[in-house]
Amino acid sequence: MSQTIGNLSPETAKARFLELQAQLDAADLAYHQNDAPILSDADYDALRREFETLQDAFPDLAALSNRSTTVGAPVSSGFEKVQHAVRMLSLGNAFEDGDVADFAKSIRKYLGLTGDVPLRFTAEPKIDGLSLSLRYENGQLMQAATRGDGSVGENVTANARTIADIPQVIENAAEVLEVRGEVYMSHEDFSALNARQTAAGDKSFANPRNAAAGSLRQLDATITKSRPLRFFAYAWGELSEPLAQTQFEAIQRFSDFGFQTNPLTRLCSSVDALIAHYKDIEAQRATLGYDIDGVVYKVDDLSLQERLGFRATTPRWAIAHKFPAELAWTRLEAIDIQVGRTGALSPVARLAPVTVGGVVVSNATLHNEDYIAGFDSKGQVIREGKDIRVGDWVQIYRAGDVIPKVADVDLSKRPDDAQAYEFPMVCPECQSPATREEGDSIRRCSGGMICPAQAVEKIKHFVSRAAFDIEGLGAKQVEQFHADGWIKEPSDIFDLKENFGSGLQQLKNKEGWGDKSADNLFEAIEEKRLIPLRRFIFSLGIRHAGEVAARDLALHYGSWDALTAALDLTRPAALAHRAGDEAVEVERHAASTEGRRAKITDTRNAAVTACAVPADAATAWSDLIDADGIGPVLGLSLSDSLSIAEERAAIDRLVGKLTIENAEQAETADSPVAGKTVVFTGTLEKMTRAEAKARAETLGAKVAGSVSKKTDILIAGPGAGSKAKKAADLGIQTMDEDSWLALIGQA
């Protein structure tokens, strides 16, 4: 809300109160009756806190509330109703350590106890399951009921009898004994159940709590019997005689009766001890094997509990200290690398399963290699520089529906033999080099069409409108043919008619195809055996080689043979540039802020010099990256792609089935700039940069992006900077835009 609650008018407060009440009622119904939550725990708790704060600030609103005496949700019409002899209440919540201290103070104040009077509490995990009340008469299980709305629950006796943790008979029990606790499902059993559900084509469950609730509330008890439900006992309802004098002793009695009780229940004599046990339980959360969402504190002395009594829906003597709903600690068991459709290598954390924000989390993104090492995309330290290693205890967070991420690492629990993670330098799918461009936080597979993870997307790109544009062969058909093994790489497209046009594997026999459609496809494929060079370059899907860059390359080299010959020649220089990039990445994390730029530059130069690049390779590399629209990033991408043996072989197989048209050469017989290399800098006032470039290329000039000894003319508009100075230093002819237009006859 934009206003604080204290500043609301009574009318605004009433409207908000009723709105919150409706939202909470809908959430309770979805959670308690339908076993299908519509809000996360954090969102529900936030709404509930606002609702209660409004009611405290505007006491008259209590008369409008339907929540003052009920908890949970009404009983479903599918079950017989059971009236609880003793109401089943909910608990108040604590979210901060200060709330726990306030809880203890309020009890002392209510009882009139000074600080020197001992006050003990029990602390036990808060099980995330479904509340159940079991009524025994003379030791015989007579009735089992869910909490329902706190006063009336659902009769699930037949279902409860199928749960192994629930005794059917209790020896030496009192005449009436109501044992209360939580029905839950372990992580292991939950995973196995979901696997069976999926195999049978049935709906899977979002988390163990939903699975447990849905299983207990079956109208057919045989279904419940087939589900692996468990039960922890921790409370009681109607009793014909007292269980014990303290809460802790009562729990021990339950164990003696044959019930499972939680072994993490502890006696604590101070708030500090309560919080310490809370943190200890939180640290064990991922290894317990079942879901908990906090720790419950109860006054241990039952006579004091009786004096403290109850509020409308909660006891004064107990409180639930909730875990942050979107945070949890768990163990990192492995780091896997997934290869995306663009070749990006994405590290994924494999975790010991833990429920975070109502969802079972077993995976989390690790973003990239820098993130694992403890740096962000700009090289700045994150997590106080703590790297992430297999075996670490990591804190996982979720916000809404985003992919879980790692927030922190507990170095105190790091195994002695934990090794720093080494990010792979080759693709795990095809073993091609995994390269990383300067300034890019992602390492990518350079395998292209030979990489299984990229193959289908690469073929889809190959047949796209700006590439081969084969009519009748779209994304859907590519997926179908690839799944059938008919098209594994682009060259297979041109063998479709020969390999699958006759015999048992005729295309016309596939669903959705007939004689006419098959013939039309074969004709469309044949028409594309003649392809312009610019379209062919674009079709290969080489990173950074878009339509404009493909056209620039075609104009610069003229033919496919010339382009490949140049790229083969540049390879040593490209490798030197790559070595410089990798040295820079190392230095970026190691260098201090002061003097960092100069140090990184020195590192690059040293790495490049160490590679001893032949002169002809250096010349060819300069010619490639100085061409306007190309540059070192695209140059590296081209060189990497065509230097991989398998990728080059796939391209050569494709070339062998095509006729690649050379780029159209301009009529330059009378051109004053034919064969010259020109560079544009500054602001052009009479045409756009793109128009100037296109006109120059039409006249047979080569347009470069930077000034070098090979530059013949620099056209400098207003705002020309370092390029003009460099041209002057090299003695290169420099002219303004008007002079350039006069030279080419467009003044």
What labels would you give this structure?
single chain, 747 residues, Helix Hairpins, D-amino Acid Aminotransferase, Chain A, domain 1, five-stranded antiparallel β-sheet, 18% strand, elongated
Physical arrangement of strands within the biggest beta sheet: 2-11-10-3-9
Tell me the structural class: alpha+beta
Give the low-pLDDT segments. Answer: 591-597
Helix tally equals 25
The helicity comes to 25-40%
Distance between the termini: 65 Å
Instruction: Give me the CATH architecture of the largest domain, please.
Output: 2-Layer Sandwich
The count of DSSP E runs of length 2 or more, i.e. the number of strands, is 24
Tell me, what is the CATH class of the largest domain?
Alpha Beta
Summarize the main sheet: 5 strands, mixed
User: Based on CA inertia axes, which overall geometry fits?
Assistant: elongated
Quaternary form: single chain
Total number of distinct structural domains: 5
Average pLDDT for all residues = 85
Strand content: 15-25%
Q: From the alpha-carbon coordinates, what is the Rg to the nearest angstrom?
A: 36 Å
CATH topology type of the largest domain: D-amino Acid Aminotransferase, Chain A, domain 1
CATH homologous superfamily title of the largest domain = DNA ligase/mRNA capping enzyme
What does this structure look like?
- This protein has 747 residues and is of the alpha+beta class.
- It folds into five domains: 5-68, Helix Hairpins; 92-322, DNA ligase/mRNA capping enzyme (D-amino Acid Aminotransferase, Chain A, domain 1); 327-413, Nucleic acid-binding proteins (OB fold (Dihydrolipoamide Acetyltransferase, E2P)), CATH 2.40.50.140; 449-469 and 528-661, no CATH class; 677-743, 3-Layer(aba) Sandwich (Rossmann fold), CATH 3.40.50.10190.
- Helices cover 39% and strands 18% of the residues.
- It is built from 25 helices and 24 strands.
- It has a five-stranded mixed β-sheet with strand order 2-11-10-3-9. A five-stranded antiparallel β-sheet has the order 14-13-12-15-16.
- Strand 4 and strand 5 (140-146) form a beta hairpin.
- Helix 18 (560-590) packs across helix 19 (596-610).
- The longest helix has 31 residues, at 560-590.
- It is elongated and about 115 Å long.
- The two termini are 65 Å apart.
